[in-house]
């Protein structure tokens, strides 16, 4: 079947997801490295109340060390410009966050139904920071889309001209 028939509205058949530029990739990796250090600090200072079943399975120093090794591998790999070290950090992080997400789901269902909205415990400055970050990201994304070269012809769809 021809591409203009197979895709709705005759959209360009050579669509690819947006490619990140080097500065985006480095910014994302730095963010992931620093974000991994937050639970490391929590666990190093004995924060125990989030996932009681999981945290009881191993000592807190082990969870802290694992989270710290994720952040340290990513940040050190970027500083040393060694792909294998960054890759190791991301692999360790994927394992840690998979375990933490399962534990968070188990803890959520343990306290079901909730007595208060989860969002009520988040301070307003944190909400403002998150929404500000989303707004900046949206502005950057729109500027990139508008300045990107058009690879596909404009397509008529939905009563308006849509161009990719």
Quick recap:
By secondary structure, the chain is mostly helical.
Quaternary class: single chain
- Number of DSSP E strands: 2
- Cα-atom Rg, whole angstroms? 22 Å
Q: How much strand content do the residues show? A: under 5%
For the residues shown, what is the average pLDDT? 75
Structure description:
- By secondary structure, the chain is mostly helical.
- Helix content is 65%, strand content 4%.
- A hairpin with a 2-residue loop joins β1 and β2 (160-162).
- The chain is globular, with a radius of gyration of 22 Å.
Helices and strands in order, then pairings?
Elements: H1 3-6, H2 22-44, H3 52-57, H4 60-80, H5 83-110, H6 124-147, E1 155-157, E2 160-162
Antiparallel strand pairs: 1-2
Helix pairs in contact: 2-4, 4-5
